[in-house]
Amino acid sequence: MNEAKNILDELNERSREVFRLVVESYLDSGDPVGSRTLTRSLSEKVSAATIRNVMQDLEYLGLLNSPHVSAGRVPTQMGLRMFVDGFLEVTDPTEADREKIEATLTGSNTADVGGMLDRVGAALSGVTRGASLVLAPKQEAEIRHIEFVSLAHDRALVVLVFAGGHVENRLFTPPPGQTPSSMREAANFLNTLIEGRTLSDARAVIRKEIAARRQQIDSLARDMVESGLAVWDDGEGDSARLIVRGRSNLLAEEGYGEELDRIRSLFDDLERKRDIEQFLDLAEEGEGVRIFIGSENKLFSLSGSSLVVSPYMNADRKIIGAVGVIGPTRLNYGRIVPIVDYTAQLVGKLISDRS
């Protein structure tokens, strides 16, 4: 980013205008931009040959690229980053865009956070014509009861009963040597500690209890307790949930060619929930909207796509989730950024009001 900023500072007015027009035209059409096209748009009257020389200089600086020998230019990843940082003009979302987002939540049951966020994702995808990503907050319901059920020597079931009656069943591989008796002992031990606590609270309490009473607990039961903790930490159940909507918006785009395979690979990764927690990490680095282009972040580096993401907060101003849009690098950033920002603020307010 610093390199792009330094280059921007060194450009003269003509080079800056040519660069801006190339990027804006590319973001609008997706097509390479030629010198003759620019002669009709520049504020000063110069020849196509002069513009070609400027474009060659910009290509030498790494800001533009020529996809074919006889074609016009398109911005590189560094060029897009420089445009976003130095030229992008962001305004408020339009009234029509705001109404489409708000319409999905008006009169809805905000107690059902998962359903609300799924509707938000659908609306965000529909408005932006991209794929929306919504990272839901972790569920922190209080636990009422826990039970371990042996299914086979290498497979067991943990049953979690939450306050309000919600029940979750999770399969896991128990430590070697477990018996129905040791599983009952582990469950009894846990149930004396966890009732009325959330999973996060229970983890800390149980670990403290294990350390304090380690000599009092049968070694096999202790293994079961620790295995149960591992199950809770494995990224399923109460962990943050990623909602992906609008995949078809990306896959239906024309003109991708080889990009389609990489886009499909991206969503295969997302649907397998790889590196999902990193999505929240991206947003937690600071308030407000962040833009990642191409390989600037590991999660989307293979897709050649851009991510516009913003965190949302609860009533205590704590980041608990994020919303975002992923699309081709030629996203209409000026329109997408305020939409994502507005959606994140709206979700945060709804969750805060619910609290």
From TrEMBL:
Keywords annotated in UniProt: Repressor, Stress response, Transcription, Transcription regulation
Q: What GO molecular function terms would the record report? A: DNA binding
Q: Which domain of life is it from?
A: Bacteria
GO biological process per UniProt? negative regulation of DNA-templated transcription
Looking at the Swiss-Prot or TrEMBL record, what is one Pfam family this protein matches? HrcA
Question: What are the residue boundaries of the Heat-inducible transcription repressor HrcA C-terminal domain, all occurrences included?
Answer: 116-337
Q: Which InterPro entries match?
A: GAF-like_dom_sf (IPR029016), HrcA (IPR002571), HrcA_C (IPR021153), WH-like_DNA-bd_sf (IPR036388), WH_DNA-bd_sf (IPR036390), WHTH_transcript_rep_HrcA_IDD (IPR023120)
Record's function text: Negative regulator of class I heat shock genes (grpE-dnaK-dnaJ and groELS operons). Prevents heat-shock induction of these operons.
Q: Family, per the entry?
A: Belongs to the HrcA family.
Instruction: Give the HAMAP family listed for this entry.
Output: HrcA (MF_00081)
Q: What is this protein called?
A: Heat-inducible transcription repressor HrcA
Species source reads: Antarcticimicrobium luteum
Gene expressing this chain: hrcA
